[in-house]
């Protein structure tokens, strides 16, 4: 097999080039090739400097994640990088694309780093439940200081080359089209000078002078890192870089890295990494299916949903024509969008110039005729089949042939909606989650007649607008809401049987959800769908509305809220629930948190199994992608189906049976076969 590493001589400079598509991951052959190349450079007196660069779209994007969990084959990355750094001849990293994880660690082991302006550098290992494992946590703080290193190692978000230059991670920025030549010239200019080694840097002393730095940083990140193991380990490792010798710091990093690598959180997050990428692929649709160009989008409805959907396209530079029935609703929707953008600008997330640019792409209209030349129209109108059918019939008559007509419905039958048109092949579900400009998930609903090119286009478009997409078949509630309804059913039943509603919420919070079902109800508004007749009370929600407990916006719902929106359980609500239970003859008993957890989560797994059995999801991991991105299922458990595998399907079945809840054949079979969901 030919090595992915080749070398080219430029007089006294050896250029080492990696060609390992798609992302130049640092697999065994790459590591071996790099090590050999360094040895070649060191043993050849006519070579006085080395440049390391990559072919293709990017500099090394990290360790090869597919090798994780398999028996290691040498040379390992740390020893390869140590050999590189030990060289007395200057070694220069020439960076384009993304230098991530192990790739950033390669750059750190080089004596100098030069980059093109579009390059990004980062240590995203925390996103895989890990910390850098090739001395990144030890070299980086020594090079740039603990304060600058912490956000990189703990947050895991890459930074642009310019920012990297500001903190001292990059030595020079060069033109996009002359990286190699500039790197060679740079390397030559350093010949004969003592090489600077990151492992010998002193910048980490900022953390020694100000040891509280680490606690302050931890406190500032408390919300983002709640429940995750890796960020705390990352802080510990960076702290160790100030407290220990380099050799001991590296040992500490290795210990922390190995503990995380063998834990379930990292397994779950690695599962998710591949799950997200798999979810964008549709098994029976060839990858080279020609796409429908989407140059202009139409959105029907300028309410919260329609506005949020619109912003996704505007932010991606795609013009949108937005339609409403009345001028005041249109004006209101437009001004909310502008305000949202301006708030982002105030928080420094975008410039005012970008706000104007995005809003400049928006055309508000009251006329369907203005949608005629759109390539895609998404309706976000009232959830009612007759209304949707009228909208689709109208769209079919005005929008050009070959354009995609999409519905944002969260549970209606896309196939039935498609019958209102003469182009059912061009009808598809695009189910966004509120707030649609923020939430990552896009549930793409495949009708029985939806064409391949329509689906392929929507999947590609989801990436353009920064969404994570997963495909669902047509069934009530699709993947996400179908499973949510099972959880809600149990939440309601539990409080009627005597469980405290705040215990139900707390169980989910403790599991890692951002909030529980009753908090969620308060946030969304208890009065959604409320008939406004306090004399007709048939549900607990109606009883709460009847006494003005509409949710957070009213200062009270299931909970009482203070001005800072802190919640306290309410005696009034407890009495309302108890009253209901008595009326329905439900015996009250104390219910343990274990039972609450099992009854909330196991029926979701069972529903997920049914969704798979019916072919409504392509793969179990798509269900995980839906729940992590659309409903706040904690990433570090890998999503409901991966989590069920770690719990054991036999335990899930036993739990469901213990609580008298149904078990699908599919789940039974998994349990009997002793297998998880794959
Ligand atoms: N190892 C193995 N495969 C990888 C990989 C990696 N590090 N990074 C990406 N891939 C694969 C993807 O699975 C995908 O495969 P597919 O086509 O079969 O689905 C393919 O490469 C292309 O990836 P993307 O679809 O993500 O391509 P993009 O162009 O959208 O993004 C990227 C490119 C920004 C590099 C993105 O792939 C990415 O973020 N990769 C992961 C980076 C990372 O986490 N690095 C750290 C690894 S851990 C580490 O280095 C430990 C060290 O400290 C010891």
Automatic annotation (TrEMBL):
<keyword id="KW-0520">NAD</keyword>
<keyword id="KW-0413">Isomerase</keyword>
<keyword id="KW-0560">Oxidoreductase</keyword>
<keyword id="KW-0456">Lyase</keyword>
<comment type="pathway">
    <text>Lipid metabolism; fatty acid beta-oxidation.</text>
</comment>
<dbReference type="InterPro" id="IPR006108">
    <property type="entry name" value="3HC_DH_C"/>
</dbReference>
<comment type="similarity">
    <text>Belongs to the enoyl-CoA hydratase/isomerase family.</text>
</comment>
<comment type="subunit">
    <text>Monomer.</text>
</comment>
<protein>
    <submittedName>
        <fullName>Enoyl-CoA hydratase/isomerase family protein</fullName>
    </submittedName>
</protein>
<comment type="similarity">
    <text>In the N-terminal section; belongs to the enoyl-CoA hydratase/isomerase family.</text>
</comment>
<dbReference type="Pfam" id="PF00725">
    <property type="entry name" value="3HCDH"/>
</dbReference>
<dbReference type="Pfam" id="PF00378">
    <property type="entry name" value="ECH_1"/>
</dbReference>
<keyword id="KW-0576">Peroxisome</keyword>
<feature type="domain" description="3-hydroxyacyl-CoA dehydrogenase NAD binding">
    <location>
        <begin position="296"/>
        <end position="471"/>
    </location>
</feature>
<dbReference type="GO" id="GO:0006635">
    <property type="term" value="P:fatty acid beta-oxidation"/>
</dbReference>
<feature type="domain" description="3-hydroxyacyl-CoA dehydrogenase C-terminal">
    <location>
        <begin position="477"/>
        <end position="561"/>
    </location>
</feature>
<dbReference type="GO" id="GO:0016853">
    <property type="term" value="F:isomerase activity"/>
</dbReference>
<dbReference type="InterPro" id="IPR029045">
    <property type="entry name" value="ClpP/crotonase-like_dom_sf"/>
</dbReference>
<dbReference type="GO" id="GO:0003857">
    <property type="term" value="F:(3S)-3-hydroxyacyl-CoA dehydrogenase (NAD+) activity"/>
</dbReference>
<dbReference type="InterPro" id="IPR001753">
    <property type="entry name" value="Enoyl-CoA_hydra/iso"/>
</dbReference>
<dbReference type="InterPro" id="IPR018376">
    <property type="entry name" value="Enoyl-CoA_hyd/isom_CS"/>
</dbReference>
<dbReference type="GO" id="GO:0070403">
    <property type="term" value="F:NAD+ binding"/>
</dbReference>
<keyword id="KW-0442">Lipid degradation</keyword>
<keyword id="KW-0443">Lipid metabolism</keyword>
<keyword id="KW-0276">Fatty acid metabolism</keyword>
<dbReference type="InterPro" id="IPR008927">
    <property type="entry name" value="6-PGluconate_DH-like_C_sf"/>
</dbReference>
<dbReference type="InterPro" id="IPR036291">
    <property type="entry name" value="NAD(P)-bd_dom_sf"/>
</dbReference>
<dbReference type="Pfam" id="PF02737">
    <property type="entry name" value="3HCDH_N"/>
</dbReference>
<dbReference type="GO" id="GO:0004300">
    <property type="term" value="F:enoyl-CoA hydratase activity"/>
</dbReference>
<keyword id="KW-0511">Multifunctional enzyme</keyword>
<dbReference type="InterPro" id="IPR006176">
    <property type="entry name" value="3-OHacyl-CoA_DH_NAD-bd"/>
</dbReference>
